Every structure is written in structure tokens, then in C-alpha cells.
Amino acid sequence: MNRILPFAVVPFMLVALSACGLKDISRQIDTVDNVGVIKGKVDVKSPQKGPVVVLRFQVSDKVFTLENQVIASGTGNYEFTVEPGEYLVAAFIDVNQDGRFQRGQEHGNFSTDPLTFTVGERETVELETIVIRGDPPVLADDQRVIIAQSEINKSIGKVVSLDDPMFKRDNYAMGMWRPLDFLNSVGGGLLFLQDYDASKVPVVFVHGIAGGPTDLRKLIESLDGERFQPWVLYYPSGVRLDMVSDYMVKAVTDLQNEYGFERFDVVAHSMGGLVTRSFVKKYVERFPQRERQIGFVMTINSPMGGMESASSGVDLSPVVVPAWRDVATGSEFLGDLHDWTWPGQIPYYLVFSHEAESGDDGVVTLESQIPFKLQSEAVRIYGFTNNHVGTLSDEAFISLFRSITRVTAQ
Fold first, then answer.
1. Which class would CATH give 36-147?
2. Secondary structure E strands in 103-241
3. 343 closest CA partner among 393, 409, 297
4. Rounded to whole angstroms, how far apart are CA atoms 115 and 142?
């Protein structure tokens, strides 16, 4: 999050937009705000061993387009966030762990009978359990399967530079106001800033609203390059935060499945702290055996208690950015995060800031940055006299960051 205007000012900014521009923004916001959820479970009765991969197909005129796939949790659970439409879900045992189904070699099954089902706006569809015993049924001759991936899924593990044009600030604004354009033209993803190196611990950097990876450049460049490799989560910051944390779980587990690394760290700024807390919650619930693989988590100047200005934006703005609903004080998203208790095995460092003689950092109040529950969960709490973004380049903070990474690497 850059040093942005309070959410309550946004309605007046929107007045300046052309009717055409406002209409396009509204259309894109409505699309991502009306998504539904598919969830279910896989029960393996087959003797085959390997991770269980769950496939989500979108269906149109008997054409099944593979849009996404996730690894089921240790208890067999899975979940997808989807646009309204017709779908098919299938699962298979990835015996050779290549992420692709091999008929006659890997067992699997479909989710429902009939095969397809619909998801409405903001509807949660819970499917019957997929039971895998052997080879899955064969689709009819007039049913075609197309293998396709979204840009953001194709970018998992892609190597880029922080100087890449994709990190232009105009794209950061696009991600908040026009998330569909962002996904189609920029893509985003969980990106590498160097080739993967099995000898180095991955550190995932998570930006905030209206921001992007370059906001964290000085922290990234301060990493000990002999011990760590920086990754960045780059996402359209206007979408619902559950969508972002779901993607982060998928991306991390996909990379673990591919590379087999047993430790990674997460550092998040501003709204990225909420994304990260949601990620940790889902990750340890779905993969409890991997809890110890998170080396440490740090949130910096994050609105962990929510923001009243986001509530005002929801109430007053003619166009409501979906992420505001989650950041708004008292939201269901925040309630779910605060009802959950941080795992004691994962060191959590809570960093806050305030401007001189002020009760906030220019954007987020101290009360929201350091709610008591999170103070009790953190192993250490550090405060700086600086503004919301300025802390990221504060030499004292960078020195602290380097010392924490050095100690936790031992």
C-alpha cells in the first residue's frame, strides 16, 4: 500500500472519472465481487500413493476447459473460488508427481453424477465426496477437454526482475480498480527474482493494496544472497482477500511439490499482512504436517484490526472495491482471522509504525496495527517512528530485518 488517500475520499475521486471509465470499473468490480465457492473432499480407496490433485473444469457447449488445479489437504479437502457458471471437478493420485493425469497409470474420479453442476453469484456449492478406487470414467466422444491455464497460474515460479515493466505503478492501480484487466494483461503470480536454488531458503514478499513488489525493493535487496532467495506475490489488490490467500496456498504447495523445499519465510506489508494471516491459517489447516516448514512470518504496518476508512468506502463509494469489504472494521473476513489462534510453532514478528506525535502511520492507526490478540501471539513486537511506506526504507528497520533473518536461518 502506498501512501494513499483514506478510503472515504474515494467517492469524490470517482466523480472525476468519465462515465465510460466508471462503467468499466464497475463491471470488473462486480465480476470479482460476485464469485462463488466450490468445496469438497476426496476419499482415497486406491493402493496408489502420491499427492491428490483436484482439477476444476469450466464447461461450455460440451467443452471442458481445465482452468485450475490444487493439491488436496492431508484430510482430502479442497476449495476453489469461481465466477458463476457451469463446472466439473475431478481428482487423481499424482503417482509420478508431475501434476498431470496419466490414464491407465494413475487412479482418479469425477465429483458428481451428472458430471456437471452450476455455481451462482456468491453461492457456495459443497460437492459429494470424490471416492478414488481405480481408473476414472471416460468422457463421451462429443465431450472435449482443453488444457488451459490463467496467466497468474502460468506465472507460478516464473523468473523476473524487479525492473520488469510489469511492475509499473500504473499496473498497481489497475490491480485495484480493474482487476480483470490486470489478470489478462499483467498476470501477476508467485514470481522468482532469480533461478531456483535448493541451497537457499525462499522468502515470500507480499505487498498491500494499490501497491506491488517494488514497494519492498530495499528489503528484498537487503537479503543475504548466500542464504536466501526472494520471491514476490504479485496480485490484483482489489479482489477479495480470500481469493488471494487461496492462490498463495496453491502456488506455495505447487512449488513444494515441484522442488521439495522444507522451509520458507513470509514478509508482508500493509494489507499484505491480512493476506498472509489468511494464508497461514489455510495452509496449516489444510497441511498440518507442513506447519514447521514456515520459518517465520513478519507483518509490517498492517491493518490487522481493520480500517474505519474502508468501512466508509463501502458505505459511500458508488464503486466498492471488493478488498475494502474485507479490510473494513468488523468484517466477516477479519472476524474469522481473529477467532483463529496463531500456531505456536511459527515465529511471528509484529512491526508497527507511527509518525511523530501521531496515533497512526499516516494510513493505519496504531490500534489496528497492534491489536492485543496479535501482540500476545507475536514472539517480538517492534515499533518505528516513520510513515506507512517510509518504514520499508528505514535503515534501523532494515538492520532489524537482516538480524532476524540471520538468527532464524541458524
1. mainly beta
2. 108-110, 117-119, 124-126, 130-132, 144-147, 189-192, 201-206, 228-234
3. 297
4. 14
For residue 376, give the amino acid letter. Answer: S
Q: b or e along 190-227 (b: 16 or more beta carbons within 10 Å of the residue's beta carbon)? A: bbbbeeeeeebbbbbbbbbbbbbbbbbbebbebbeeee
Query: What pLDDT is attached to residue 4?
Result: 43
Separation in Å, CA 247 to CA 31, 253, 404: 18, 10, 27
- Which residues 6+ apart lie within 8 Å of 138 measured at CB? none
Topology given in CATH for the domain delimited by 151-408: Rossmann fold (3.40.50)
* Euclidean distance between CA atoms 232 and 220, whole angstroms: 9
Residue boundaries of the structural domains of the chain:
36-147, 151-408
Q: How many CB atoms lie within 10 A of CB 243?
A: 20
Is the pTM higher than 0.70? The answer reads yes
Residue with cell 482415497: 44
Contacts of 149 by beta carbon, 8 Å cutoff, 6+ apart:
66, 67, 68
Q: Where are the alpha helices (DSSP H) in 214-269?
A: 217-222, 241-259
139-186 confidence digits (pLDDT tens) = 887 778 887 677 788 899 999 999 999 999 999 999 999 999 999 899
